[in-house]
Amino acid sequence: MIWFPNPPYAVNRKGVPAGFEIDLWRMIAETRQIPYRIRKAESFEALLQAIRNNQADLAISGVLINENRSKQFHFTFPTASSDLKIYKLDSQEPTAIKMLRILLSRQVLLIFLGLGLIACIFALPVWFVERKRPDLADKRKRHQLVFILQKTLLLSTDHTRQSRTRLISIGSLFARVLLTAYFTSFILKVATSETYLSTDYQMADLNFELLKNNTFAATPGYIQTSILKSNGAKTMGCDVAETCIGMLQAGEASAILDDMLTMRSALNSMPPKPKVTPASGKLMTLFMALAISDQFSRDPRSRAINDGIARSYYDGSHTKLSRIWINP
DSSP secondary-structure letter at 162? Predict the structure, then answer.
């Protein structure tokens, strides 16, 4: 049996092979009494080559199933599934700056201008009617208007003593309350929509026309790397997920195309900053399995391994290992 590090399916834990698929394999080998020897491949490409040339019987490394590989290898029952996503450095601006940008937007400034105009427009007729009041008569016209306007802006109606002007002031208050309510709903809508776009952005297909300016850190031999190259994207080679993430954090690469489970597991062991986050929604669903060489596929033990994986779904062992490695 040959393996290569690819968290959480196969990992090197203090020199001892571990991980979801390796633990699953050990469980099957023990229950089915299958003796085995285990060795680590020098690279993921070397792992695939060993299976292709019958130099190893079984490959464990979260090997993705696709049509082309199915013609070269025999796959067991799927061991796990994950979602393919694009990952980049988090470019989200701080919440305070985001809110300040919203408050200084053209629409918000127009709303504030509307509030001021409403106060002025409603204050003028009140002033024309009320300016002969004893407490206003000794003030200059400008001061009288400022007094009425101040009262109007303070959402107050106690500056007027006549029913008709009181109705005007109440109308001013009602109009400003409506505009303020619209202002509040507008702020909430913009903030919510920006959050949605940043966290749940969905791409309908694997169209990389908009991503050709990015340089992807990619592991040779991965299906993800083949997808990138077939779509004309620039790639830089990296041996394992942690190396790819390190290249992204160091600014050597601008993006990574990988499955969600691998990225989540690898990021848990990496420095938290600069933060790496998904830059796309789910692009496609991926299925992993143990790859079996053509020669070993004719061995009765290969059928026992496949049966053991299938049974793990029903006896609870698959769920138990998932809680340890996939859903910690």
Answer: S
Q: Comparing 124 with 71, which gets the higher pLDDT? A: 71
The domain made up of 2-81+287-326 has a fold known as D-Maltodextrin-Binding Protein; domain 2 (3.40.190)
In 138-245, DSSP assigns E strands to 215-218, 234-237
Tokens of 307: 């049966």
Domain ranges (residues) in the chain: 2-81+287-326, 89-93+202-278, 96-199
User: By CB neighbour count within 10 A (0-12 exposed, 13-18 middle, 19+ buried), where does 77 fall?
Assistant: middle
Comparing C-alpha atoms, which of 71, 1, 6, 2 is closest to residue 288?
A: 6
Rounded CA separation 240/238 (Å): 6
Q: Judge whether residue 182 has pLDDT over 80.
A: no
Residue range 89-93+202-278, CATH number = 3.40.190.10
End-to-end alpha carbon distance in the chain: 26
* pLDDT tens string 200-220: 444 445 555 656 778 999 999
Backbone angles phi, psi at 123, to 5 degrees: -75, -30
pTM over 0.70: no
Rg (alpha carbons) of the chain, rounded to whole number? 33
Q: What residue ranges in 42-121 does DSSP mark as E strands?
A: 58-64, 74-75, 80-89
